[in-house]
Amino acid sequence: MTPFEFQLRTRLVFGSGAIDRLGPLARELGLSRPLLVTDRGLRDAGHLERAIGRLRDAGVEAAVFDACEANPDGAMVDRGVAFAAACRPDGVIGLGGGSPLDCAKGINLLLTNGGTIADYKGYGLARKPLLPMIAVPTTAGTGSEAQSYAVIADSATHMKMACGDPKLAFAAAILDPELTVSQPPAVTAAAGFDALAHAVETAVTTRRTPISLLFSHAAFRLLEPHYERTLADPGDVDARAAMQLGAFYAGVAIEHSMLGAAHACANPLTARYALTHGVALAILLPHVVRWNAEDGADLYRDLVGALPPASRPGGAGDGLGPRLADAGRSGGFPPDLRTAGVPADDLPSLAEAAATQWTGTFNPRPFGVREALELYQRAW
Predict the structure, then answer these.
(1) pLDDT tens, 155-171?
(2) 157 close to 73: Cβ distance less than 8 angstroms
(3) Does CATH place domain 185-379 in 2.40.50.140?
């Protein structure tokens, strides 16, 4: 059995209306003037006003940095650090999807430890303590609220950098499914498939452990039946609650088992074509599952077993792969890279970029330039 170490660093507060706990939680952590990192969409949706109100009820006055955008990069983090330095916060709150949460982590990291975000690519490079952090995710997607990584893009190349440190874990995460109802349908679909991909990939990585598998499988059992239910009825808070909790579980699994070839191939597509991460995964993941299954028939056995009987006629290749493709169609995503606007001539250079991605090193089947090219060709 694989040796492992396991620790949950983040306190989880889950349930409808849980946002009302934000003020008391901030006070428990000793916060009186935190920095609140979000985006303008959350301000327009009214979630920022509600969060600030709950903080003020507890005597906490937050300074708001709402210039976060999708796929935060080093320049965005630097702007947040400059804003925060003038405010002298005693904590950080991330409100929004994975981008504001990762941006909040990046700002905290540089505010307390200095340097540039590229200095922290890797793991365990923060030398000084960070400010206490609270996550309030408004999507069911990245699972950033459960991880000690900030995923920040290089400002020049737009390639994502994984900057990890135990001190980057949120002290607490508030999961309120009511906050996800205001998402545009496209965001619900892309973020939800991202979470589903996390559950699938973490279940088979070379770093998986008995504990990480508990979270991978629990995440899949929550996400798989509720993904299309959420898309069909966006107001179904129970379905959204399952998606949000599933995304958190998948985030815990990532923390302890990492990801695989689908994410390695997805990142260059986002960097070069601004293809939404969840959309790229929806195109790639069914092919990666089939390809991995060719090398190990029982690899996805537990996930296939969680599918409805009609969806598992012959294992991962005949069951899980097509089921994931069906989910992608439900999300309204392009069926292939060609339809998504990726030129065939670009596939070799994309494969070279994918082979440099850290996540590919944890794929259960050996993954390099040749294998990445094969996967891109299958998905084209």
Answers:
(1) 888 888 889 999 999 99
(2) no
(3) no
Q: Edge-to-edge strand order for the sheet containing 122-123?
A: 122-123, 160-164, 149-153
- The model's pLDDT over 205-249, given as tens digits with 9 standing for 90+, comes to 999 999 999 999 999 999 999 999 999 999 999 999 999 999 999
Which class in CATH covers the domain with range 11-180?
A: alpha beta
Contact present, 322 and 220 (Cβ < 8 Å): no
Which residue has tokens 């986002």?
A: 270
Q: Please tell me the distance from the alpha carbon of residue 198 to that of residue 142, in angstroms, as a whole number.
A: 8
Question: Cα(134)–Cα(87) distance, rounded to whole angstroms?
Answer: 18
pLDDT confidence of 311, banded at 50, 70, 90?
A: low
- Name the DSSP class of 209: -
Host H or E run for residue 35: strand 35-37
- Report the predicted TM-score, pTM, of the whole model to 2 decimal places: 0.94
Residue type, 246: G
Tokens 């440099």, residue located: 356
Q: Give the phi and the psi of residue 353 in degrees, each rounded to 5.
A: -70, -40
Domains of the chain: which residue ranges?
11-180, 185-379
- C-alpha separations of 103 from 5, 35, 93, 95, 239 in Å: 27, 12, 10, 10, 28
Q: How far is CA 351 from CA 20, 52, 69, 149, 217, in A?
A: 46, 45, 27, 25, 30
- 26-80: pLDDT as tens digits: 999 999 999 999 998 888 889 999 999 999 999 999 999 999 888 899 999 999 9
Q: What is the DSSP letter of 11?
A: E
- Please report the pLDDT score of residue 282 as a whole number: 97
Cβ-based burial of 295 (10 A; exposed 0-12, middle 13-18, buried ≥19) = exposed
Residue 373 to residue 367: CA distance in whole angstroms: 10
122-123/92-96 β-pairing: unpaired
Spatial distance between the Cα atoms of 226 and 239, rounded to a whole number of angstroms: 5
The Cα angle at residue 119 between residues 115 and 121, in degrees rounded to 5: 145
